[in-house]
Each structure stands twice: as C-alpha cells, then as structure tokens.
C-alpha cells in the first residue's frame, strides 16, 4: 500500500482528492494467479503454495540407525480476492504480512502451542491466516469489518479451503472503530487465547482505532496473547527530508502510551526475531516485523 505526500496546493484545495487505488506488491514478485473463474466479476483466484511438515510423529530410524526425516508435503491455499482496490477496501487483497504470520502460525502449531487454543483474527481480510491457524487450533474466529462484501468473501474462501480447516471455524463482524461489541462477539473475545493480525496499519485513524481495540481485548479476561505482523511502509516527507514510516511510528507511539494504562492486566511487549522457518512462497523483506503482546491478570 503506497501513500503519497500532498503538495501545498493540494492541501489548500477545496476539491476532494480522489481516493488512491492500490495493488498488493506480492504480484510483482511471484505469479500466484490461476485461470479459475471467480465467483464475482473483477475478482481473481490465486493459489498460494506452502510446505506443511508433519507434526506429532515420533522419531523413526532406518536399519543403520539414521534418523528418518519425512519431507514436508506441498499444500496450497486457494483465495478469491480483488486485484486492486481503494485504500478503504485493502482487506479484499492479499498482502505480504499474511505470509509471515502464516509462517509463524505453522511454527507455533508444530510446537503444539496452538493445540486446544481459541484463536481470534482481527482484520482478517481474505481469511488466509485464519485458515492456517485452523490447521492447529481448537477454534478460530475470523473477523473483519462488514464492508464491501468482505465477510462473504471470507466465507467463500473457507469453502475453497475446507480440507485445511481442522478446527471449529466462525466468521463474525468486528469494526475497530466500535468497541461496543454485541454479546456474541464479546463472548468469543472472552474465550479467545490468542489474537492475530497482519497488515492492519495503513492509516493513522485506523491505527488509533486498532490500538483501542486490542487494548480492550487484551484486558478482557486475561491472560491473552496477541501476535501482529506489520510492514513498515515508507514515504518521503519535506518535514523530515527523509523517508519515514509514519503509520508504523504512530503504532509504536500509541502502543507505548497504552501499555501502562491497564488497570486489570500487566502487558509484556516484545518484537520477535524472524529466524523461524519460511513455509510460504514470498519475499521476507527486512521491513516486515512481528510483535508479541501478552496480557496477564494483575
């Protein structure tokens, strides 16, 4: 998602600027698209390959007492999505952070850290990372704003990937700008153990709303753990005479502000190293980051 710096003439103009149309950079790196006919005109269907190691098997040895290592099997996640969108509907596309979060979920799953857990995804977009979580978790609740047909798209993609979904799987609306949750949503939040999110930071107002949302979620019946993947997106500003990542800086500033404002829980915040295996096919660029935020009851 690319941002543009407005000129002084544009800032003082009374005319409303047209909203930018953006296209995910992943399609400049690999050809994921298929010739499968999508359900909706203007959409495309892509297949995202990944390696899936077997988990839970006891070690086996051959007749020479050498360890037998079974090769991971190749799998694909089939996703129907938009090829380009306005910024407000970027969730209808697939972004690079979803692959990094998918890698992390497989890594956790292989270690048994998702077993019997309830996972809640925020801003799930096309649902890709929720489908990965559903390989290992007891329950997955996939949420996003009810806008632009995104919830119906997630349900459609769940049908495409039903062979991968091993958990109880739900799709529900959740809007970052409204934390007056309906009883059904609140109940799912109360019982969630792990919250995940990828590429949800692209606008300062959305960032502030997201921070308010995770603050309330993490303080609702802790302990809870949030894993969030972000990609720093740089723009050149005259103010700084340099390229900066303003949305990411806003995220860090707001996170630092709220981490000590929680009366009912204590937060532990850490940026995790990206030294775990890569299972999806994508460029793991240096601007991708993974944060872990855990809340424990005071």
UniProtKB/TrEMBL annotation:
InterPro entries: Methyltransf_16, METTL22, SAM-dependent_MTases_sf. CDD domains: AdoMet_MTases. GO terms for molecular function: protein methyltransferase activity. GO terms for cellular component: nucleus. It comes from the Eukaryota. Pfam families: Methyltransf_16 (PF10294). PANTHER family: METHYLTRANSFERASE-LIKE PROTEIN 22, METHYLTRANSFERASE-RELATED. This is Methyltransferase-like protein 22.
